[in-house]
Write a structure and sequence with these properties.
The complex is a heterodimer. Helices cover 0% and strands 52% of the residues of chain A. By secondary structure, chain A is mainly β. Chain A starts with a strand and ends with a strand. Chain B starts with a strand and ends with a strand. Helix content of chain B is 0%, strand content 48%. In chain B, the strands form 2 sheets. A 6-stranded mixed beta sheet of chain B has the order 2-10-9-4-5-6, with no helix packed on it. Chain B has a 4-stranded antiparallel beta sheet with strand order 1-3-8-7, with no helix packed on it. Chain B has no helices and 10 strands. The chains are: A mainly beta, B mainly beta. Chains A and B meet through strand 5 and strand 10 of A and strand 4 and strand 5 of B.
């Protein structure tokens, strides 16, 4: 059974840092690109970052470029999101998402339960 | 960046109704579109990929169509568990933007 379990969320002051982790199991992690998608309270979904299976290709949405860094450790079946210089508008539930390239250009076929990041003074 | 719009943003329907949601892209994206369902308090679930292919065990009352810039998600005979918010997502180019969502509520 595919499982994605996020951790590392919490309350942080503006300008602070957090590192999110996602533990993957039930599939060959090193074979899949992975994403982070976020959802602000009461709002819609926003794709944040993607990383290819071997970390060769990395993409971030413009609003987090220079502040967030996606990374992975295939030996540990783990995905990470280092978030620096956090802003109030980064407050959201952050989902770890598996991208499946066999599904029409890479649809997100498995999602974690999400971890809440709250940026507030 | 490719922008997606969805219409309607909200719809009220009854069980067994037929429902259609439209997603429009700001530029052509071929068939690189997915649809997701999100129930309250839950993570999104993939329904359709490649604009029209049903994922896994998704019930056949769900269907998708379209290519280029206009896409539709249709639910025939709405069931109680289908009351949720639906999002489209383009996978043609980064950033992989989502539509703003369509909330389907009980009439």
């Amino acid at each position: 059974e595919v499982q994605l379990v996020e951790s590392g969320g919490g309350l942080v002051k503006p300008g602070g840092s957090l590192r999110l982790s996602c533990a993957a199991s039930g599939f060959t992690f090193r074979s899949y690109p992975m994403n982070w998608v976020r959802q602000a309270p009461g709002k819609g979904l926003q794709w944040v970052s993607s990383i290819s299976s071997s970390s060769t290709y990395i993409y971030h949405i413009d609003s987090v470029k220079g502040r967030f860094t996606i990374s992975r450790d295939n030996a540990k079946n783990s995905l990470y999101l280092q978030m620096n210089s956090l802003r109030v508008e980064d407050t959201a539930v952050y989902y770890c998402v598996r991208e499946n390239l066999l599904l029409g250009s890479g649809a997100a076929d498995y999602w974690g339960q999400g971890t809440l990041v709250t940026v507030s003074s | 960046d490719i922008q997606l719009t969805q219409s309607p943003s909200f719809l009220s329907a009854s069980v067994r109704d037929r429902v259609t949601i439209t997603c429009r892209a700001s530029q052509a994206i071929s068939s690189s579109l997915a649809w997701y369902q999100q129930r309250a308090g839950k993570a999104p679930k993939l329904l359709i990929y490649g604009a029209s292919t049903l994922q896994g065990a998704v019930p056949s009352r769900f269907s998708g169509s379209g290519s280029g810039t206009e896409f539709t998600l249709t639910i025939t005979s709405l069931q109680p568990e289908d009351f949720a918010t639906y999002y489209c997502q383009q996978l043609n180019s980064y950033p992989f933007t989502f539509g703003p969502g369509t909330k389907v509520d009980i009439k």
